[in-house]
Amino acid sequence: MNRYTKELVDLSKIDRALDSYAPQIDAIKNKVANAQKRVEELAAKKAEIEELIENNRIKIKSFEIQIQELKDHLDSLKKKSALVKSEREIKALSSDEQIAKDTIIYNNEEIEKLNKENDLKSQELVELESEYQETLEELDRIQEEVKKELQAIEDQKSIYYQQRDKIIRAMDLKILAFYEKIRKWAGNTAVVKVENQACYGCYMKINDKSYSDLIKGEEIVTCPHCGRVLYLEAESEKAEA
Known about the structure:
By secondary structure, this protein is mainly α.
């Protein structure tokens, strides 16, 4: 293997290693996202219950005002009943009085229902608040844990970046540009090994001339089918694999 091919092989291995951290980073960040989502869900549920309780209180207040108005109206009817003499007026007052009394009963029943619902929702809110605080603490713990995990990954990546910079500084810029051009479409398979005379990028058999050039190792060889850079693994590398 010539120097330029070796540089490309080493560079591609480093790039592959660096890119391999992406799924790990995503998985680590997802832990925070999931915990944050749970906190937001609980906060939304809390707000929903608090709004319901407050709306019920407003309704209760409205019913109480109506009840007081109806009681005042009943007092007024009592005063009027002492003055009326005709049967028609008496019936009208009686009907009005019954409607007022029925409405007061209805309003009291509604107030009782709303108070019961608020009692249940208030208890649910207490339990929810406890869960919310626990989830917040869990989020803080996960964020701290994730921070350490990401820092450990960054420390590992920095070593690879140093190695990468060292290789790039020694490389011919034209060869580097050639590699980056292939990497744009081939990603981490820009440089691949050949086994059984087959390219491990497109898995097609390469022709005898290309394979012969590869064995000679005098120049950079690309796959005649897909254009990836090819190399042959040393026996020691095969044994390690």
